[in-house]
Amino acid sequence: MQKVRPGIHALIARLGDTPAFVLGRRTDILTANRMARLLLADFDAMPTRERNTVRWIMLDEAARSLFADSWEHVASVFVGTLRMDAARHPDDTRTAELVGELSTS
């Protein structure tokens, strides 16, 4: 399980009006500050396995609306990041499950 250091939690909390989140492996959203939860999505309310940037961008209609005209570019960037992670960790079953889920959606 990936963990975020207390200092990083404190840092993004202090950003106030600037949305910020911390990504881990597979583009998992490990933590987000209040503004990110208000402007983007309430990631804390999502089940842990669903807190993933690529999953959110690809499957959540609100994310598509949020990014509007730049959605294809944003999706492409994050899918590329997920592909790099999958190449670095070819035996990671959670990555394979995520890719499988996204491939059938």
UniProtKB/TrEMBL annotation:
<protein>
    <recommendedName>
        <fullName>MmyB-like transcription regulator ligand binding domain-containing protein</fullName>
    </recommendedName>
</protein>
<dbReference type="InterPro" id="IPR041413">
    <property type="entry name" value="MLTR_LBD"/>
</dbReference>
<feature type="domain" description="MmyB-like transcription regulator ligand binding">
    <location>
        <begin position="4"/>
        <end position="104"/>
    </location>
</feature>
<dbReference type="Pfam" id="PF17765">
    <property type="entry name" value="MLTR_LBD"/>
</dbReference>
